[in-house]
Structures
1.
Amino acid sequence: MDMDLIQARKVIRAHRPSLRARLLSSDTHVPEPAARPGGGEQLKVWIDQDLCTGDGLCEEICPRVFTLLDDGLAYVKDGDTIMNDPGGQAGMVAVANDLEDSVREAAEECPGECIFIEEG
Ligand code: SF4
């Protein structure tokens, strides 16, 4: 990867508020995370389509959780069900354990900063 691009991404990340800070500053209500049977808490994810740029990075990083529709916006999926009716926070889904890292990566890389995750 081009060194200038790498440096530029580091600068952007350094000045971007954390996901938790964005969640805490949000006016929207975020439900408490669900408890897992074996302990710990379940990661959940949703997208604010009002902020989505439609570039598709999330789908590239984690296609089992994110998908782009014909309206040019990204939505989360719950298995084969696309959470587009409605989307937004009402379409929040639980994330399988093996997909948590890639969902976090997608949220960090999202240029619209519109992937919101909730975890304990
Ligand atoms: S990475 Fe973010 S801005 Fe890009 S399509 Fe996915 S949700 Fe939208």
Note: Residues 18-118 form a domain with the Alpha-Beta Plaits fold (CATH 3.30.70.20).
2.
Amino acid sequence: MTRITAIEITHHRLPLDPPFKASWDGRARGHFDATIVRVRDDEGREGIGSGDLMKGFEGHEDLFIGEDPRHLERHYEVLSHINFHYGRCWPLDLALWDLSGKITGEPVWRMLGGRSDRVRLYASSGVLREPSAMADQAEHYIDEGFPAMKVRFSSSAGGRTSWRDDVKAVEAIRARVGDRMELMVDCNQGWRMPWDTTLPWTFKDALAVAKELERLGVYWMEEPLFRSDRKGMQALKEATSVRIAGGEMTRELYEFRDIIEERAFDVIQPDVALVGGITGCRRLVYQAREAGVMFTPHSWTNGIGVLANAHLTAGAGDAPFLEYPYDNPEWSETRRDYPMASSLRHSQGWLELGDAPGLGVVLDEERLCATRIG
Ligand SMILES: [Mg+2]
């Protein structure tokens, strides 16, 4: 039997010059942090995960050492208890899937059911640009082969002063691209950075925005209300033909169970690197499908998180497209994937997962040395 012999966690910081002004963050970001989790077995193999900071994991290594890495459901139980008491340590679940794939010689998408070895992507923008510049960016995405893009509304942080300005950006894009691409809008009302005390929209605000998005043929409206307002989400869903999406930071799988049962959202977006790992989110794929709810993960971490979400979506899911954080030049594939030896590259809006065992992550050890902190 193969046994886990070590778990190593390192933290890294890439300076961002020029800084990245994310629409959902009032403070420009001067650096991009990544936590890398490695789990090793007694035959010298190493599984890799990334995502959250692994706060609260220290001192729990012994719960995994000596265990078979392939006992993924057992490890999921332990991680869910750590999640209950401390932080979200799901990157270890990703690393265990990667290691299990390396032991069995199979890519994770195939271990998860093997529906497909690739996923269609939507380009997920992060910067608030002037309407004409947003339309230019949409054209670039079309030229690169993306079937869809996500546009941000300013929430509290950006340069735009009201949602009416945000609607103008969507109008400019739609006028330029016509029906050549699907558009999604992320309202980001479900969460805030710790320093941001702006109140989320009321139901009436959200409804007024939804009517505008309906007019513009928007595919989904993401996080239109505060995350706890499931009744509001449901009422909004009934009041508009635009799909309502959310749940990227919903922490407990039983909350998702209720969301699915109540049909509070049309689209759920758990991120395997932040919530439940691959093992937990796999349950949600099946629950959602049976309820007619779309499952398509949030993936705004680094390339390792994108890959992990892509393996689940390809192997078990059936979403029409998966989030691909990508907004040149501010959020390039090179910046996003700096822990990796080579950045992920989409191919005409597809991410091909191939036959490499596990998640197929190769780390850039030199860069990880140079960016190490703590
Ligand atoms: Mg979002």
Note: The chain has two domains: 4-105+366-373, 111-352.
